[in-house]
Amino acid sequence: IKKIAVLTSGGDSPGMNAAIRSVVRTCAYHKIECVGVYRGYEGLIEGDFKEMNARSVRGIINKGGTILKSARSKEFRTVEGRQKAHEALKKAGVEGLVVIGGDGSFTGALIFNQEFGFPVMGIPGTIDNDIFGTSHTLGFDTALNTVVEAIDKIRDTASSHNRLFFIEVMGRDVGHIALNAGIAGGAEEILIPEEDLGLDRLVDSLNKSRTSGKSSSIVIVAEGDKIGKNIFELKDYVDQNMEGYDVRVSVLGHMQRGGAPSCFDRVLASRMGVKAVESMLGGETNFMVGLMNGKMLLTPLDKAIKGKTKINLELLRVSDIMST
Ligand code: ATP
To answer: Is 126 in the pocket of ligand 1 (CB under 6 A)?
Structure first.
């Protein structure tokens, strides 16, 4: 392989820029060419490429978002679209593709490889931490820090007014952000899709916490949790079935996806970029790089896509004990 392309696809996450930088610099280190592809698979189809060298990625390790922009591409879901992408890559002399994104982006990459035999390598970039084959996805740690900072601030106002706050956090169908940030932010309850607490037990538990002398309560609700139809209905239910608290809702939203990546995410991104490029140069294809037990390793893309992440039961127990 003499030339590698890198793109970011799907939802953005903090650390994507650090990963782009790492891919570009690892290519430079090994004296191979590197091109950046703008707007994910959209730009791949259009041939929207830019030659990149070690200096093109200066000053971005600390920036959120992605300098290459991200997109969702309908056309790449079609054979014709992927055919165009393949032609664009061939025309530019590219021989390998690094895809930074989530499982949807990996599915596209895998299909692309199966159709054209084109070498692909995935770097997991999403704040949700919902990808099998890595203990941490890029952006997860930064999002956690952002959420904890927000919880701390909401706690200040909650305790001044004897309020009960429901705070909705991102995470799609999994509760990793909710569970970790909930413990770190001292939440009284954490509602995650993996565990159904039930409305009655929630009200019981909040009543207990109020009578035990707490001046405020914070409940972290994962966006994928199904206890109420949505967080506002949950609030209404608790309002009607509990006394003594002024109940409020705060939906943190997209601020969770932005911001400067944490030290952890910058280091992780740097390691993932090196591993992705060097694995590809070593002849590996159709893998995702990941962090497991402190080491960088490869997981076949199809396993990364289909595998389910598990919630850490020990963390669940810690959170129960902490809310005593
Ligand atoms: P996020 O964490 O935001 O969900 P993602 O990578 O899973 O990230 P998706 O929107 O699911 O985001 O996928 C990104 C892009 O990957 C899609 O817009 C599409 O172009 C491509 N893609 C996804 N699934 C397929 C598929 N089955 N076939 C071809 N391309 C696909």
So the answer is: yes
